[in-house]
Amino acid sequence: MTPVPPPRDETELLARARRLAGLSLGDLARSLDEAVPADLRRHKGWVGQLIERALGATANSLAAPDFEAIGVELKTLPVDARGLPRESTYVCTVPLESAGEDWEHSWLRRKLARVLWLPVQAEKTIPLAERRIGSALLWSPAPDEEALLRRDWEELTERILLGELEQISARHGEVLQIRPKAADSRALRHAVGVDGERILTNPRGYYLRAAFTAAILQRHFVLPG
Amino acid sequence: MTPVPPPRDETELLARARRLAGLSLGDLARSLDEAVPADLRRHKGWVGQLIERALGATANSLAAPDFEAIGVELKTLPVDARGLPRESTYVCTVPLESAGEDWEHSWLRRKLARVLWLPVQAEKTIPLAERRIGSALLWSPAPDEEALLRRDWEELTERILLGELEQISARHGEVLQIRPKAADSRALRHAVGVDGERILTNPRGYYLRAAFTAAILQRHFVLPG
DNA sequence: AGGGATCCATGATTGGATCCCA
DNA sequence: TGGGATCCAATCATGGATCCCT
Question: Are B80 and B94 in contact (CB under 8 A)?
Fold first, then answer.
């Protein structure tokens, strides 16, 4: 199959995404000449990558948005029967040695500046190939949403700069979490300790809590129930 | 010991309650010449009844407020280390055969018209005698609080009148629940079924969800954390 | 039987761990 | 290694059951 070209603008991207609504993952995979794994246990990112290809995401350009030319990030949302997100959403890795960048210029804020949310059924009772794609939502943070993100980010960033990374758990942050992000817990990265010394620690990622992405969907769609 | 006389007015009641703040249940029990049980498993109402006696509640007058002369109900609130209620609060039994009374004249509304809330430490790690009494709060429902109670009460009452009591679970009601209230699940009372016939069912009580009583405390005290 | 409530088994949540691909 | 994420054991929440007293 010839790859899907990048969308020229947001309108084209959104139109493509809307055409996916109602489609099963099996159907979409077939149209892209892809095999469907039995389950996601050993293929956790499969759904996201399938949809990237279906929408013409720019591959292989790390540290750039999925749709580089038009500055849009793609995020699939695994949802339950009520349409509510069942998992947190990974945003980006946590810089552990960065100079003191501020919120306005933060990696996190840039990643979330413009996001195409695409809900996908994720109940384990539905075979992977039969799970359906939901209604796309092109989103930027509303002022109150950005305020929440900013507050959490600034609190977490300050603690990292103070060398307190090891004391940060996934319980911190009202809408934004810091959690391990690696192949396993033996992975190590350099960071800064309480006395300014270099230490080794697990790599971390920023994640949006499911309650936050649920609120985003809730605000834009009338959910059933 | 000579029993504590009923308080003459709310001011006297509140003053007495405030004097209890910081006191341990062991100290209070000793001053009233009472034995402290090892735990509450077989003495679930012990804390409430101890504090009734300490404050001069009118005993034995069923269907009347604890402080009958001044129209105040006493409720102890079992709280965790953060001061948050750990259990729902029983209010009154659910009338199963009553004529169609309305909210204004409901038993529930009258019970909650004026309540003296008294938080008490309830963590199982603290021996019963060492648990301390917190700061008393004399409360009447604010307009928004009453609106929530009323909405739940009216929905639940309508379902009971329609004979749908058996379909009501503790999941119904945003702030108010209906739950079993009996010595055990073999207790039976008369009620009305879907076709208007008399049926036998478990006795039920109205309970306030812990999130609701937590909001009441939150509104009046700055909680730590 | 109503009023004082808490207990506790079970379901729901989630924090930390992990998996594949390029 | 960063980006695509989900897994799942351990914890939390709570609905239904229960206990004592008068």
Answer: no
Q: Using DSSP bridges, classify how beta strands A176-180 and A198-201 pair: parallel, antiparallel or unpaired.
A: unpaired
Query: CA torsion, points A8, A9, A10, A12, in degrees to nearest 10?
Result: -50
What single string gives the DSSP state of each residue in A66-112? SBGGGTBEEEEEEE-TTS-B-S-EEEEEPPSS-----GGG-HHHHHH
pLDDT digits (tens, 9 = 90+) for A7-34: 999 999 999 999 999 999 999 999 999 9
DSSP class of residue A139 equals E
The angle, 0 to 180 degrees and rounded to 10, between the axes of the packed helices A210-220 and A143-161 is 160
Q: Which two tokens stand for residue A109?
A: 């804020």
> For position B3, what pLDDT does the model report?
85
Q: Which of A131, A159, A141 shows the shortest CA–CA distance to A23? A: A131
Beta-sheet pairing, A189-192 with B137-139: unpaired
Taking residue B225's Cβ as centre, other Cβ atoms within 10 Å add up to 7
- For A11, list phi and psi in degrees, rounded to 5: -60, -45
Q: What angle do CA A79, A66, A123 make, to 5 degrees?
A: 15
Nucleotides on chain C that have an atom closer than 7 A to a protein CB are: 1-8, 14-22
B72 phi and psi, to 5 degrees? Answer: -120, 140
Q: Decide if pLDDT at A123 tops 80.
A: yes
Q: Which of residues 103-122 of A touch strand D (CB under 7 A)?
A: 120, 122
- Using C1' positions and the CA of A180, the closest nucleotide is C16
